[in-house]
């Protein structure tokens, strides 16, 4: 069930051109009026869509392509090799889910393999295939820098100082994940649903795909197909941005639907507070009866455990922390 949208089954449409596009270079150009305009655009995108395309981000295409190539090599390893990294717990530094037919109690099929790495505050990565660890270390440092600049823009768009969210959420020690997802082609696996509808934990999710579309977001009650845009990151608002903004910016509901005869690989960065940070609505956005808090505060680590426990039951952590007004 969606935490913030209708739970009816909407139709899928393609309106890629309507999705906001943010030019990252203008956010970091040092020109005040350009930054001010981009900050406003980020705020509008977060409020109206909960997502946007990010262009001119400065991360080399060659680096991203090398990450895609080595990720493909990882998933092409034998089942026995991948079992070395089999998932056990939510805080395992390296977790590989290698089954392709996971089903929850709602009978939804999860059709993917996933390598999930904790990459901040400590960096973790398999040593094979050769070169993946060194490459991923460079990649996550660069994507983290982009994410932290975006958080500054989001902070300003909410009327705060650029450093306010960093300070309040202890982002210097933030918990950052890199999830590398592999979706087999429909020729390999006879199903269309790659990943069921969900929102992400954390503040912002950075997603990059290998040119094979499949991502859909729920917008105004309809599933919108997101086409592949060369050298662009897709940015999604996540749960803790919704909590911290007291509901102003919603965590974006999304899913993966595979209809392609090519395999799909995505690099997904989730960026959250530190594990020890207790996250609730910003005190600056709560004002007695006029703007009451919409969420109960919860430690970030407890939220992650709660999310893992509830997802198999078809529930969302907001079921436990949302304050009904």
TrEMBL record:
<protein>
    <submittedName>
        <fullName>Uncharacterized protein</fullName>
    </submittedName>
</protein>
């Amino acid at each position: 069930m969606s935490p913030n949208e209708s739970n009816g089954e909407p139709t899928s449409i393609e309106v890629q051109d309507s999705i906001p596009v943010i030019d990252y270079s203008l956010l970091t150009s040092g020109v005040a009026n350009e930054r001010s305009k981009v900050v406003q655009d980020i705020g509008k995108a977060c409020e109206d869509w909960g997502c946007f395309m990010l262009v001119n981000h400065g991360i080399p295409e060659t680096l991203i392509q090398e990450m895609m190539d080595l990720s493909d090599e990882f998933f092409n390893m034998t089942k026995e090799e991948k079992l070395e990294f089999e998932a056990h717990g939510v805080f395992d530094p390296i977790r590989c889910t290698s089954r392709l037919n996971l089903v929850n109690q709602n009978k939804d099929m999860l059709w993917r393999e996933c390598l999930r790495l904790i990459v901040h505050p400590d960096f973790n990565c398999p040593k094979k295939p050769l070169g993946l660890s060194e490459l991923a270390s460079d990649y996550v440092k660069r994507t983290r820098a982009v994410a932290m600049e975006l958080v500054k823009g989001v902070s300003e768009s909410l009327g705060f100082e650029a450093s306010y969210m960093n300070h309040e959420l202890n982002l210097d020690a933030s918990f950052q994940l890199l999830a590398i997802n592999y979706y087999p082609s429909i020729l390999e696996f006879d199903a269309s649903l790659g990943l069921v509808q969900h929102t992400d934990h954390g503040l912002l999710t950075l997603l990059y795909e290998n040119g094979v579309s499949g991502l859909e977001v729920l917008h105004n009650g309809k599933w919108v197909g997101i086409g592949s845009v060369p050298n662009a990151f897709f940015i999604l608002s996540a749960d803790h941005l919704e909590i911290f903004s007291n509901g102003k910016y919603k965590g974006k509901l999304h899913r993966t639907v595979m209809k392609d005869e090519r395999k799909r690989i995505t690099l997904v960065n989730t960026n959250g507070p530190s594990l020890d940070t207790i996250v609730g609505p910003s005190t600056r956005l709560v004002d007695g009866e006029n703007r009451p808090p919409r969420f109960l505060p919860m430690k970030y680590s407890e939220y992650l455990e709660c999310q893992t426990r509830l997802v198999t039951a078809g529930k969302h952590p907001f079921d436990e922390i949302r304050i009904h007004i």
